[in-house]
Predict the 3D structure of the following.
Amino acid sequence: MKKIIPYLIIIRPINCLIAALSVWVGAMMTWLEPQILSPLLTSIATFFVCASGNIVNDIVDIPIDRISRPDRILIQKRMSTASAYLFSIILNLTALGIAAFVRLDVFIAALTAVGLLYLYNYKAKQIPIVGNLIIALLAGMVFITGGLAIGRTLAFTLPGPLVGALFAFLFHLVREVVKDAEDVEGDLQAGIKTLPIMFGVRFSIVVAMILFLILTLCTYVPILKGWYSESYKILTVYIVDLPLLGFLILVWGNPTKKMLSVGSFLLKIGMAIGITALIISK
């Protein structure tokens, strides 16, 4: 059991579960009647792609994590880099095999996600904003991929998966900016240029607030269009949008590492609640 635990920790299973659940939501927002097999297989493939990306991220980030994340598995030498590489390759190959079994559209989406994650980890994360945009794009893609598991046409019909994809894109973009502000010390040591390093932490939090305000306005569109039930409004506006926007203002006033860490965590919770809002409003 002790040998298995590092493999579970390094994939960051909660993040992967959120991605897998997002696939189900994308499928639910598409299907005319409930379907099980295709969304299930697609969500499993998505979990594996996400897990592999997290592993590669930890491998690439070893110099940064020695400063910012000393509790990471590879830093503590609870797993060798070679074992981590092999594990990530196995996960990707398994994911692509499953995706190919579902349908061609899902395979193309999975292959694109794998490519984008490698591009992010080995190149784009060192380019200000570009890396953040890739992660946000991948977050939105999982909803579309869920829709593709059902059918291509319905996947791009409003108010289907495109709604969840837009919300996920903006939500993750906000969180990426906040995480960069949290990791400034490690990124400086590693020579990585991020938005907070180039323009300052407070400026970055202002950018995050503006993006989150745009997200908040977007969440009102389904309310005005009458697409979803009242429960959607309660969860998104009163439990997610307003509290998180208020907390971001507090972070801007006191941008300590602890406050930024709490902000990043609360944004992750907000994502989960947002997904729940889309599920129960279906």
The radius of gyration is 19 Å. The CA atoms of residues 49 and 114 lie 6 Å apart.
